[in-house]
Write a structure and sequence with these properties.
Length: 368
């Protein structure tokens, strides 16, 4: 039985989000109907809405949903009606990387999550006035009061934790945390530098504060965000608008360079400066995504000291173990995401977009 719900539809590239009645198709065997309680707003949503990626429009975006399961398809085993869930990315479950515990590098990741707008079999999950809409965004399209969600996007979580406080775990937070825990893996006394103090960068700062790293450096141009970074665990901050980044990091590290760097800005010039600032055998994790086709020139001889540059998608996380662990840290007050979040009624989605774009709010979360 199909369900009519209200969703924020992007009609065409560059158009605002418009609330509209849409129809959810019947759940496939491995899908569930989720009543959304909250959904985080991410720069990826804005990039797609602006036409920066070839997602089919008109369509429904949203990929940091959190809600309550209302119904499940015949083959769903991971959740049941009434369960509280965080929604994250989907994956095929059958390729080499999925079997190896790295579903963020699924062989079908791009069409299933970011570009396809349909299920893997080509069918649509959403329609309006009888016409299919772009949907299945990250297996969820959670900018809606109800969503048809792929089972592999569903993560069951502790019902005692308010869903609005953990919605960002589905993408931005697990990306920043995973960059530190799953890739850098700081050892005792190491130095971690985070380039960019937005939601992903500040999540990386909080993650680094829970490791044996003794020097944690946040770099940004906004003084308020640098102050917040210090409150969240940064031992040093660098205002990128006041002098050369390399000189500042050399002074902090005594000329040795950084053991690990998380690059979240998507600025290729910043990426180059980060690579140059690495210590011997240091690692830079590329998280920020510039436009497709962007390139960066590197000093090849400078890499021969064992430097590594590693790309990252969604923290390289296995969501069903990683996200519940993050929920426990939020519950215990050890991962204070509330310092990043500003909540907005779903109907105010355009105001949330404006506040995120202007920098007024680090992580907007829509509430339903």
């Amino acid at each position: 039985m199909t369900i009519t719900t209200r969703a924020a539809v992007v009609e065409s590239a560059g158009a605002p989000f418009t609330l509209s009645e849409v129809v959810l198709e019947d759940p496939a065997p491995h899908e569930a109907v989720v009543r959304l309680v909250a959904a985080g707003l991410c720069h990826t949503d804005l990039g797609v809405a602006s036409g920066g990626l070839p997602f089919p429009l008109p369509g429904v975006l949203g990929h940091e949903g959190a809600g309550v399961v209302e119904a499940v398809g015949a083959a769903v085993t991971a959740v049941a009606p009434g369960d509280h869930v965080v929604l994250s990315f989907t994956s095929c479950g059958d390729c080499r990387n999925c079997h190896g515990g790295h579903p963020a590098y699924c062989a079908s990741w791009l069409p299933l999550n970011l570009l396809g707008g349909r299920r893997a079999d080509g069918t649509s999950t959403l329609s309006r006035d009888g016409e299919p809409l772009g949907g299945h965004f990250f297996g969820q399209s959670s900018f809606a009061e109800r969503a048809l969600v792929d089972e592999r996007s569903l993560v069951k979580v502790d019902p005692d934790v308010p869903l609005a406080s953990i919605a960002p775990l589905g993408c931005g937070v697990q990306t920043g945390v995973g960059a530190v825990w799953n890739v850098l893996r700081p050892t005792t006394g190491s130095t971690v530098v985070v380039l960019g103090a937005g939601a992903v960068g500040l999540s990386a700062v909080m993650a680094a504060a829970l490791t044996p790293a003794t020097t944690i450096v946040a770099v940004d141009r906004v003084a308020e965000r640098l102050s917040l970074a210090e409150e969240l665990g940064a031992t040093h901050t660098v205002d990128a608008g006041r002098g050369a980044l390399g000189d500042a990091l050399a002074e902090i590290t005594g000329g040795r360079g950084a053991d690990g760097i998380v690059e979240t800005t998507g600025n290729t010039a910043v990426l180059r400066q980060g690579v140059d600032a690495l210590a011997a055998r240091g690692t830079l994790v590329v998280v920020g995504a510039p436009p497709f086709g962007s390139e960066v020139a590197l000093d090849v001889n400078g890499l021969l000291g064992g430097k590594r540059v590693v790309g990252l998608t969604l923290g390289d996380s296995e969501t069903r173990s990683f996200i519940p662990a993050l929920v426990e840290l939020v519950k215990a007050g050890r991962l204070p995401l509330d310092r990043l979040i500003g909540t907005y009624p779903f109907a105010d989605i355009d105001r949330a977009v404006q506040d995120m774009t202007s920098g007024k709010t680090i992580k907007p979360v829509l509430t339903f």
